[in-house]
Write a structure and sequence with these properties.
The chain has six helices and 19 strands. By secondary structure, it is of the alpha+beta class. It has one domain: Mitochondrial biogenesis AIM24 (Double-stranded beta-helix). About 3% of the residues have low confidence.
């Protein structure tokens, strides 16, 4: 299976509002959001909608997925502001993903659920993470390009919680804020991560007020938001 596009970033992320899949005769892909399929070139029998199992319904809050088989072309609409990143999967891949980022997976992919700890659940609001194995690829949705980051077993990496898409299953994670008193007072929770392997991060803006500031928000308001504890909450 191939993704057809001319708009590709250095990281391989496709920054478009649509994505076109070309399926060869032996290809099969499972689309977890069938309503996003806006055009399909192939025989009617090459699309087969199926009910998700109970785990899939709970994870994705969807009842139905679509299995598409080749040879065919599929045209899929993406949510506004989102990108798609194809990620190859093998048995050596030990990354844990949030299921909500998954748009599709190819035949030959197996999914295992990994239950999160209670403290992780409070922040991510996801009870489980997914580990993929087998041979094939998955399509990940992200708010901005997906970048890789190498972990160090001793020096911690601090990652804003909303930016983390996947991490190695042997990594050690702690919730924290970091920096001096002023820094820790004004930041959202971060993951403090140590271990070996690669993180997947979505390079999206973590500050909702950033666009407002760029649009010409007043200097006094911006200063008060920065200086006062919880100023970004009380001062609009």
């Amino acid at each position: 299976m191939r993704i057809l596009t001319d708009d590709t970033s250095a990281a391989g992320t496709l920054a478009r509002n649509t994505v076109k899949l070309k399926l060869e005769p032996d290809d099969a892909v499972h689309l977890l959001h069938p309503r996003q399929l806006i055009a399909f070139q192939g025989g009617s029998s090459q699309r087969e909608d199926r009910f998700l199992d109970l785990k899939g319904i709970v994870r994705k809050k969807k009842l139905v997925k679509a299995k598409l088989t080749g040879p065919a072309m599929a045209y899929i609409a993406l949510p506004a502001g989102y990108c798609i990143q194809p990620v190859p999967v093998s048995d050596a891949n030990r990354l844990l993903f949030e299921f909500r980022h998954l748009l599709y997976f190819t035949d030959g992919i197996r999914m295992d659920s990994v239950v999160q700890s209670a403290r992780h659940l409070l922040v991510t609001r996801d009870f489980i993470r997914m580990r993929f194995s087998g041979t094939g690829s998955i399509g990940l949705l992200s708010q901005g390009p997906i970048e890789t980051w190498e972990l160090d077993p001793e020096r911690p990496t601090f990652v804003e919680t909303r930016a983390l898409i996947a991490y190695p299953d042997n990594a050690h994670l702690e919730l924290c804020v970091y920096g001096n008193h002023l820094a820790s007072q004004h930041m959202a929770y971060h993951w403090k991560i140590t271990g070996t392997g690669t993180l997947l991060l979505q390079a999206a803006s973590a500050d909702p007020s950033f666009e407002e500031q760029l649009a010409g928000d007043g200097l006094i308001k911006r200063t008060l938001r920065e200086l006062l504890p919880f100023g970004n909450i009380w001062i609009k």
